[in-house]
Amino acid sequence: MSLRFGVVGTGAIGREHIDRITNKLSGGKVVAVTDVNQDSALQTVEQYNLDAVIYPDDVALIADNNVDVVVVTSWGPAHEATVLAAVEAGKYVFCEKPLATTADGCMRIVEAEMKQGKKLVQVGFMRRYDSGYVQLKEAIDQGEIGQPLMVRAVHRNPEVGENYVTEMAVVDTLIHEIDALHWLVNDDYKSVQVVFPRKTKYAHDKVQDPQLFMIETNSGIVMNVEVFVNCKYGYDIQCEVIGEDGVAYLPEFPSVVTRKNGKLSSGILQDWKYRFMDAYDVEIQDFIDSIGKKGEPQGPTSWDGYIAAVTADACVKAQKTGEKEAIRLQEKPVFYSKDTVCETV
Amino acid sequence: MSLRFGVVGTGAIGREHIDRITNKLSGGKVVAVTDVNQDSALQTVEQYNLDAVIYPDDVALIADNNVDVVVVTSWGPAHEATVLAAVEAGKYVFCEKPLATTADGCMRIVEAEMKQGKKLVQVGFMRRYDSGYVQLKEAIDQGEIGQPLMVRAVHRNPEVGENYVTEMAVVDTLIHEIDALHWLVNDDYKSVQVVFPRKTKYAHDKVQDPQLFMIETNSGIVMNVEVFVNCKYGYDIQCEVIGEDGVAYLPEFPSVVTRKNGKLSSGILQDWKYRFMDAYDVEIQDFIDSIGKKGEPQGPTSWDGYIAAVTADACVKAQKTGEKEAIRLQEKPVFYSKDTVCETV
Amino acid sequence: MSLRFGVVGTGAIGREHIDRITNKLSGGKVVAVTDVNQDSALQTVEQYNLDAVIYPDDVALIADNNVDVVVVTSWGPAHEATVLAAVEAGKYVFCEKPLATTADGCMRIVEAEMKQGKKLVQVGFMRRYDSGYVQLKEAIDQGEIGQPLMVRAVHRNPEVGENYVTEMAVVDTLIHEIDALHWLVNDDYKSVQVVFPRKTKYAHDKVQDPQLFMIETNSGIVMNVEVFVNCKYGYDIQCEVIGEDGVAYLPEFPSVVTRKNGKLSSGILQDWKYRFMDAYDVEIQDFIDSIGKKGEPQGPTSWDGYIAAVTADACVKAQKTGEKEAIRLQEKPVFYSKDTVCETV
Amino acid sequence: MSLRFGVVGTGAIGREHIDRITNKLSGGKVVAVTDVNQDSALQTVEQYNLDAVIYPDDVALIADNNVDVVVVTSWGPAHEATVLAAVEAGKYVFCEKPLATTADGCMRIVEAEMKQGKKLVQVGFMRRYDSGYVQLKEAIDQGEIGQPLMVRAVHRNPEVGENYVTEMAVVDTLIHEIDALHWLVNDDYKSVQVVFPRKTKYAHDKVQDPQLFMIETNSGIVMNVEVFVNCKYGYDIQCEVIGEDGVAYLPEFPSVVTRKNGKLSSGILQDWKYRFMDAYDVEIQDFIDSIGKKGEPQGPTSWDGYIAAVTADACVKAQKTGEKEAIRLQEKPVFYSKDTVCETV
Ligand SMILES: [Mg+2]
Ligand SMILES: [Mg+2]
Ligand SMILES: [Mg+2]
Ligand SMILES: [Mg+2]
């Protein structure tokens, strides 16, 4: 009765998903694992005391009839091939971002999935499962602030390592806003322009930091999104939607408030891991429950993975040109037309 | 490998626990149920599609060798007998409040448990598992505000029914603060005085509302606790600890903030069910995990149940006399001396 | 056309009033000063470059036909005699607290004033002119929260000197709440009880700190007022009124908000002088304008001074007895029956 | 000893300044007035019971030897001529915005003032005297948030009339941010780009609303300023400065907080008049005091008026072209090089 998971990629995020499926959530179990590093796969099975087969590669794992769902947590460039193979085998897929490293790769998955006649794939954009975002979307969808006109979003990290270069502000950081914001306002992106403000002295040589992305949607909503990955003070995700009748804000992450040393303060997270901890749990539980109850996942689709890829490409181009760059999506297939709604509260 | 639960009492709270054990949490399953209303037990098994035996009564359920844990969610006056029987059978017990309706009853359970030589019982005081309370306790325990001197707590409901009488302010409402506050400041209660402010016009004839409880601890901390169950505006739990070096507050329940119609606002819950929803999940998962990993539950003990009963008795007496009433606890057995700590964040 | 002030007492507060009358406000000028320390009087005239006569004592100053208003900023025990003399001479009086050091003394002033047939005296309770209190009173008076049932007030100082003893928590500190709270809810006090929580380690030997005052009004409103004068973290005045339909709070003193070093913070004042700076200005300007436009001051009256004295006496007694002490006011003369309303916004 | 004011223009803002000089502040008096509508001038003298000469025009008023200061509160197109005449006569000038309607006009005033050898003119940009802005600037100048990198500002009105057209978003609304923001970060503007988001349904045909201005400074600070004049919900001024070490926010306008009807709320002003009421008072008092103590005003200079004019021109051009437009200021004369600092707290 439990959904049987095969996990491709037993690095940090892979192990976290294994842990939550095994020890925190209901209705799933891990029955197979693989990793390009077989030692890692072996250690993982031992660490979580799994009753799971260790496969030499994704192809073998996918071929296991006991595997209902393939979790793709390998490194990004490997995603496309694994997802395609799993979809072609008719298996459900939970794929961490990116769905594929290119828009064309995403489109190949979209087409493979449509060929199977039902939704099989969910992409790991967990923000849609964060209780704050869910509340914010609800407020918008219920007309609390009227038609959205502008969005302001902020994605700040205290600092990043030497290997974090300018493009990663899009591919690793902004990518979460890219998925969340079009979902939030039920619209599609049209163009993006990037501006580089004065660079913080805390940024390494190879990264422009902060960066400002101005994204326009088809209906004319203007989104100003700040990425600032050496902001020093904490991990801070903000989102504010300005509508015709009012403004709605993503709640601050809850924290004890103190009066101390001349300050009335609440804490700001330092470590991004805590910010969406609950969202990850809700995300995977919803994935399990939706397959169980409706036969298909209800979360971010392959099409959402495609949107993210096309948009990210335009954002990277805009980083380079300094010009307003078009975001050109193919027409949305009817197959994906029913917006998947996260009903979780 | 799963912990096998037998549930005594399939009313609302019993079914909720069954639902979370079955569909939301990991490591437990419901294998037996009973209820004085056998139809209710039967319906529950069907509703949740349980593979569970329906027993005619608690004695039969406890006798089932497949039952590892007895969940006591029957009506209050029945708790003591069921808990005692389960403890004497060496079974784990998760008992919703009250542990017993009298202090003597609680003491009988305490003694029975000590005779078994290990902690078997956890009382369902879920606030200790609320992330806000956990953060607040952490701040206090880490010395953020120095030695606590005063506490101010507020327990407000929008309204209550005709059957809610003055005593219930203690037994049904304040009881949660009674458990949470001594845990929060690591102290024991010494006395209580009750004051009735001007009564709200929204209260029924038979209930004094609001009520103010002034509770003193052994070390001299003074706690002012307001119970106001017809406050109209929402369900609102506040807690503030004033220490030698600062003040710490329980976080507000997170909510979207809006600017609209001349107001900068966040929402206040109307329904108490949402306030501690997550805490219930964490509570039961911790109960399962603690038994699995440490062989005994780590949450509120029988002794905490006894403290609650003695304190509630004094509060009810103080409602009647208007005087300062002593809260006289027996000496704490060494058996319970290691404070159980909720390590969950 | 300017109101001509004679100032009795040229200490710190006296000089501040001279400064604001001379350099900040409109419609008044200082024409006479006196002080038991004549050097101080002389220095003051020089410091503010006043065109003012220096008198040997209050009697001589009051006798000056050029003096319209006597400002009483001498030390407390001297207030009564100066105020009485000024009132008997038909002069307006602005008297810093206390109006007199005894309730009987206040009553003598009340009677002298009534004999003059019009209000001459205003007592320096400046909180009624603080924009936050004014807003709070407006909200209450307009029925925003319905009938008040409870009040919670907090008066915290970072620290006090060795000379601050237990009684001063009433006479110097609580006295401001005593005036403000009955005005806020339009009610009279009935009784008071004092509780001493665990004492902070930061308090000197001779002072009990913190202290909790529980004051009841005639209509049954219960006010919990905390005085905590070694709270370390700042100067903090809080006031919260709980009504039948909602709760209203005194606004926090406005401050820049920052996100920095893992904290979202706003500042708390360290120095009480800044908290009511504007209120002092508004207070004296209103005093000048009211005399100009209506022929009598509109602020706190001699009767309010009497209420403060009687209430403070009961609070000091309650500090000593630990019992609930009655607050027994004489019947309010019709002369004072029209509540003076601060219309300033 | 009082500074003697002659007021040119007795409309609403002129009368307000007359009222504050006469009835609220210290050290000034109105001795002369004029208006193109002589009835208005006459009514004003009567309304405020002024002992003032009514002149037929500004030239005659300026010629009066009793006039020390000329207040220019006529309509905008008349400002330049009056200011020039007053400066050439060696009189102090307090001129409401705009200093002149063209950059060239402002430059003529700058040159005339330099010829007089001392600062005579202050422009009525009152935000620099708002306690919130003063606190914010202090935090920045003291290095609280390190070097500023980005600014986000919001200027929202509930609604505007039919006569409010697109350009007025710059000339009447943004103009206050134009002055305040360069002062706040001690920098000069370099370019501006304007984006029009989806238009609110509440805006009239002739106005684009909202508008987003992206302004860059010489040092690379990027300022995103939103003007939204039909936001419906209130009058709302926000300003947030993002620096290398943290973020600082302009305080919200203080308001009573309530818990009521399921909302925790504070009020947002509806009427802009209340937002900077105190700032106007502080502004004029500082103008009077600075002339008295230092012989010249300390507030916004003619050069600030010139900066505002040049920047506004570029913003209006950018509204039309949709392109990034340069903001080209002449080199700052040494005469204005000492930044005037508002020391008022
Ligand atoms: Mg993810
Ligand atoms: Mg419970
Ligand atoms: Mg005073
Ligand atoms: Mg102005």
TrEMBL record, chains A, B, C, D:
It is an enzyme of class 1 (oxidoreductase). GO terms for molecular function: inositol 2-dehydrogenase (NAD+) activity; nucleotide binding. Residues 137-323 form the Gfo/Idh/MocA-like oxidoreductase C-terminal domain. Signal peptide: none annotated. Keywords: NAD, Oxidoreductase. It comes from the Bacteria. It holds the Pfam family GFO_IDH_MocA. It catalyses: myo-inositol + NAD(+) = scyllo-inosose + NADH + H(+); 1D-chiro-inositol + NAD(+) = scyllo-inosine + NADH + H(+). Its EC number is 1.1.1.18, 1.1.1.369. Pathway: Polyol metabolism; myo-inositol degradation into acetyl-CoA; acetyl-CoA from myo-inositol: step 1/7. One of its GO terms (biological process) is inositol catabolic process. Residues 3-125 form the Gfo/Idh/MocA-like oxidoreductase N-terminal domain. Homotetramer. Belongs to the Gfo/Idh/MocA family. Involved in the oxidation of myo-inositol (MI) and D-chiro-inositol (DCI) to 2-keto-myo-inositol (2KMI or 2-inosose) and 1-keto-D-chiro-inositol (1KDCI), respectively. HAMAP family: IolG. This is Inositol 2-dehydrogenase/D-chiro-inositol 3-dehydrogenase. It comes from Halalkalibacter okhensis. The lineage of its organism: Bacteria, Bacillati, Bacillota, Bacilli, Bacillales. The gene is iolG.
